[in-house]
Amino acid sequence: MASIPVMERIALQIRGEAAAINTFLALLRSEQQALVDGDMEALGAVVQKKDESLAGLLNYAQQ
Description:
Order of helices and strands: HH
Number of strands: 0
Distance between the termini: 24 Å
Oligomer: single chain
Number of domains: 1
């Protein structure tokens, strides 16, 4: 099994972090829209997903 070059590993890590950040930002926008629309059911679902996304971001930060 060939090892992944260091620079490629770093690039993969950065892409993963960027994807996690973009997901979190999209959830923030969804949360804002749910608040504007007054849709409490959607807001609850988005907040739960946002919390999970934030946990993923914190996991990246700890690595």
